[in-house]
C-alpha cells in the first residue's frame, strides 16, 4: 500500500467503526495534510478512492462527507426499456388523478409526491422579496407592465443564470409562464395538431401523457436507459417511421428515471431533430438540482437553428406554489407567446417582480447549494434503506440529480397492488404504470427522496420493503 | 306646472346656465325639502324627471350629480345585429394580435385598450395585503396549500360576495384560475371537441373567437341587441339547427356592446340551455361594474341543474396584472378542475392568499363604488365628446356598466381605415371587424372610456371625429 491507500484505509476503518458517521464532514485537504504530514495530492487521491467506493461524497464548495449507506445501495437497473414501437392512444388521466388525489391526504407519508418537502424552500426570503417588491409596485402604480412575454427584469435574471452556466440566451427568447407545465403545454399546442403523434421516453413523466391525451395526440415511446436517457438510434428510427409532430424529453434527471444524457448525446440529439426538422420540447425542471460540481448543459445549449423548445421553472427549486416557469422556444417563440396570450394573457405580475428582485441577490445560489447537498444526502439514505429492507433482486437508480428513485422490484411484486396496500396504511408512492400509456412497468415504482426524512419515512420504507418481501415469498409459494 | 315640474325647471335652468356643472352634486333630498319647503316626494319626482331627460344621474349611496353632456349624447343604435345563420370557420387571431400589439405602444392614447386605466386600481392597498400575507405565509411555511381548486379563504370570500348579491354558491363550486380568460378557455375545452361549433354573440368578445380558433371550433353568431343582449328566439333556432357543443355569452355589460340582459331574459336563457342540455359559458367579468344601484344577477343565479359555467375575475375591477379569476362550472366543475391541473396545475399561491386577506376588509366595496362612479362619469363625458365631434348619423351605446362604448358610424366611414390612420397619429381604437368571424361591423368601433381622461384623450376624440367627418364628406363627394 502506498500513502494514499493507507490514508484511505484508515478513513474507511473509521467509517466502518462508526467513528465517522453518515453526513459527517471529513477533514479539509489542508487539515489532513497538516495532521498526516502528507502532500495535498495524497489526500486528494485518498478521497477520490473513497468516493469511487461510494463511502464518501464531495459537495460543491463544502468538502467531503461520509456517504449514507456507507456504499450500501441496491444495484442499478441496467436494461434499456423495450416499449412497443407502435404509436398508441393515451388514456392515463383517470389513473394519474386517482393517485395524485390519494397522495394529497393529510398525514400520508408522501413518497409518491412530485415535489420536494416544503422544508427545503426559501419561503421566508421570498416573502421578504414579495413584500419589498409590492411596496415598490405601489410607487409605480403600473398594472400591465408584466404582460406576456413577461417581466423584463425576471427574463434578464433567467437569461443571466443560463449565461453563467454556459448557455447564452437572449431575454427576448424567453416567455414567462404559469409554471413549467403551462410552458410545456403551450409549446406542445404550438407545434402539434390533434391526431398527430409525439415521441416520449419509456417510462416518461405522466404530465406529458396527460398533455397528449388532452390535445388528442398519440404517443410513441422510445427505449430509454436508466442512466443515459433516450436511445438515439431508436429515436431516429421512430422519427423516420412515424414522422411525429414533436419529441418531448427530459434530458437531465429525467422523471421518473433520473437519467442524465451526457453532453455528446444531447448534442447528437439536437443534430438529429434539426436534420429531420422535428421540434424538440425539452423539460429541464430538474436541471438545477445536480449533485456533480457543475450544472449539466441542457440540449438547448446545442441548438443552433431554433428547433428546441426549452422549458423550466422555479417550482422544483424555490417555490412550488408560485407557479412561475418559462420557455425559450427558439423559432416557435412567437407562436408560443400567442398561445399564452390567448389562453391566460400573462403570468402573475407581483410574483414575477418579486422573483426578479430575489434573483438579483446571491440568495438563490446559496439556497440551491444547500438544497442540492440535502437531496444528495437523502438519496444515499433512501438507497441504503432500500438495500436494507427490500427483497434481493430489487434494483434502484442512482441519479446524479433531482429527487426521485426508480425501483425495479423482483418477480412476484406488483407495484399497483403495493400502491393500494400502502395507501390504506397512509403511505403514498407512484406506481410504474403511471409512467406509460402501455401496460408496462407493473413491477416498478417511483419514490421521492426529497420529502422530510423522519422516523415515519424510515418506517414507511421498511414497511414497503416487508410487503415486497411478502409478495416475493407468496409468488414463490405459489410456484 | 305643478311643484315638481317647477323645481325641475329651476334646476335645469341652473345647469343650462352653467351654475351647476357636470359632475356637481345636487342638494340631497333632505336639503332640497328644507330649502324649497316641499315634500320629499316632490323632490324625488323632480329628480326622476331630470334623470329621465339625461340631465342628472343617481350614484349609489352618493346622491344625484349633474350629468356630463347635460343630456347631450349621440342616439343609441337600435337594431339587432343580423349575422348569417351559418356556422363559420374562425380566423381572427392575426387581426387581433396586430391591433393589440399596436395598442401597447408607449405614448398611444389607448382608446382601443381592453383594460381601464391603471389609475383606477387599488394597487397600494393590494400591495399592503400582499406584504402582510407574505409575512404570514413565512410562518406557516406551506408550499402547496393553494393547489387547484384554489385557496380556500379566497374561494370563501368570492362565494360570500355572490351570496351578498343574491346568488348562493358553495365554495366547492369554485375553481381559481389564472384570470377569467384561463377560466373561459378551460371551460370551453372541458365541454367541446375539435370540429364542433359554439354559439357566440354578434358582435362578440374577440378572446372568445381566438379560443374557438385555437381549439378548432366553428362559430355560430346570433343576433344581439345593443341594449338587451342576445335574441333568445334566434338563439333557440340556432341551437336546434346546429346542435352546438356550447354557448358562450356575456350576459351583463357585454364586450363590445355593453348590453345587459334583463333578469327575465337571463332566466329564460338558462331554461332554454337546460331544456336543450347545452352548456352555457357565461363571461361575467364586467358584472361588478354596474352604474345602477344593484349588481345585475348573472344567468348563473337561475341555474338549477348546473348547465351554466360562470366565469369572472378581479382583472377588470381590481388588479389586471394579478391574473386571478375563477369559474363556477356547475356539473362541469370537476372536468374543469382537471383541465386546470393538467395545463397549469394551480394559480399563484401568494396572490390568492393576499386577495383573500384584502377581501376580508371593506376596502374592495369602497374601491368598487369609487370605480363605478368614475366610470359612469366618464361614460357621459365620452358620449358628450362624441355628440360634439362625430358626424351626424353616428350612434353610440349608452351602457349601464363596464367601460366600453360601441359606435356605429354613418355611411362612408370605414373603421379599419380609421384605425390605421389613428394609429399613425398615436391613437388606438378597436375596429368593429375584430368582433366577428364574418366580414361585419366594418362601420363600427369600440372605445374605452375607462382610460385616463385628460387633454390628450379629449383631443384624440375630436381628431377621430374630424376624420370621420372627412370620410363622410369624401363619400358624399364621390356620389
TrEMBL record, chains A, B:
<dbReference type="InterPro" id="IPR036388">
    <property type="entry name" value="WH-like_DNA-bd_sf"/>
</dbReference>
<feature type="domain" description="HTH gntR-type">
    <location>
        <begin position="1"/>
        <end position="69"/>
    </location>
</feature>
<dbReference type="InterPro" id="IPR015421">
    <property type="entry name" value="PyrdxlP-dep_Trfase_major"/>
</dbReference>
<dbReference type="InterPro" id="IPR000524">
    <property type="entry name" value="Tscrpt_reg_HTH_GntR"/>
</dbReference>
<dbReference type="InterPro" id="IPR015424">
    <property type="entry name" value="PyrdxlP-dep_Trfase"/>
</dbReference>
<dbReference type="GO" id="GO:0003700">
    <property type="term" value="F:DNA-binding transcription factor activity"/>
</dbReference>
<keyword id="KW-0032">Aminotransferase</keyword>
<keyword id="KW-0808">Transferase</keyword>
<dbReference type="GO" id="GO:0008483">
    <property type="term" value="F:transaminase activity"/>
</dbReference>
<protein>
    <submittedName>
        <fullName>PLP-dependent aminotransferase family protein</fullName>
    </submittedName>
</protein>
<dbReference type="InterPro" id="IPR015422">
    <property type="entry name" value="PyrdxlP-dep_Trfase_small"/>
</dbReference>
<dbReference type="InterPro" id="IPR004839">
    <property type="entry name" value="Aminotransferase_I/II_large"/>
</dbReference>
<dbReference type="GO" id="GO:0030170">
    <property type="term" value="F:pyridoxal phosphate binding"/>
</dbReference>
<comment type="similarity">
    <text>In the C-terminal section; belongs to the class-I pyridoxal-phosphate-dependent aminotransferase family.</text>
</comment>
<dbReference type="InterPro" id="IPR036390">
    <property type="entry name" value="WH_DNA-bd_sf"/>
</dbReference>
<keyword id="KW-0238">DNA-binding</keyword>
<keyword id="KW-0804">Transcription</keyword>
<dbReference type="InterPro" id="IPR051446">
    <property type="entry name" value="HTH_trans_reg/aminotransferase"/>
</dbReference>
<dbReference type="Pfam" id="PF00155">
    <property type="entry name" value="Aminotran_1_2"/>
</dbReference>
<dbReference type="Pfam" id="PF00392">
    <property type="entry name" value="GntR"/>
</dbReference>
<dbReference type="GO" id="GO:0003677">
    <property type="term" value="F:DNA binding"/>
</dbReference>
<keyword id="KW-0663">Pyridoxal phosphate</keyword>
<keyword id="KW-0805">Transcription regulation</keyword>
